[in-house]
């Protein structure tokens, strides 16, 4: 090629300094790509881990909910049985009170008879 003044310009040969700069750039680019790839793999693995962990947590939650429901049903059955038993006891207590009142009346009658005799 010629310069602005019309004189030919000599071609600049590649210097050995340019090769190490390209090598350094290549190493840096390769390192960045490895770091980025490692980060992507790590994020994907973290996503799988969190999904599995939340799935396990949800399974445990459903198991706990089922056990709680069973426990509540047993408590309700126990409460119903206790209520039935208490109603029966109430009837028994009322019968005992009526019988006691009857016994008191008989006792009062006997006391009157004894007072008349004696």
Please specify the SSE layout and strand pairing.
Layout: H1 18-117
Structural key phrases:
118 residues; 1 helix
Q: What can you see in these coordinates?
A:
With 118 residues, the chain is mostly helical. It is built from 1 helix and no strands. It has one helix at residues 18-117. It is rod-shaped and about 165 Å long. The protein starts with 17 loop residues before the first helix and ends with a helix. The mean pLDDT is 87.
In brief:
With 118 residues, this protein is mainly α. It is 85% helix and 0% strand.
| Biggest sheet architecture | none
Uncertain runs are none
Terminal-residue CA separation: 161 Å
Based on DSSP secondary structure assignment, what is the total number of beta strands? Answer: 0
Mean pLDDT: 87
**Secondary-structure element order, N to C:** H
H/I helix tally: 1
Percentage of residues in DSSP E strands: under 5%
Main structural class:
mainly alpha
What Rg is obtained from the alpha carbons, in whole angstroms? 50 Å
Shape: rod-shaped
- Tell me roughly what share of residues is in helical segments: over 70%
């Amino acid at each position: 090629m010629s310069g602005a003044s019309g004189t030919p310009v000599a071609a600049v040969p590649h210097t050995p300094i340019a090769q190490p700069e390209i090598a350094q750039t290549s190493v840096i680019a390769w390192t960045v790509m490895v770091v980025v790839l490692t980060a992507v793999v790590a994020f994907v693995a973290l996503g799988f881990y969190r999904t599995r962990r939340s799935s396990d947590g949800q399974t445990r939650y459903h198991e706990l909910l089922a056990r709680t429901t069973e426990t509540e049903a047993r408590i309700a059955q126990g409460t119903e049985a206790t209520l039935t038993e208490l109603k029966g006891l109430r009837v028994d207590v009322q019968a005992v009170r009526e019988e006691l009142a009857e016994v008191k009346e008989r006792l009062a009658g006997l006391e009157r008879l004894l007072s008349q005799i004696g």
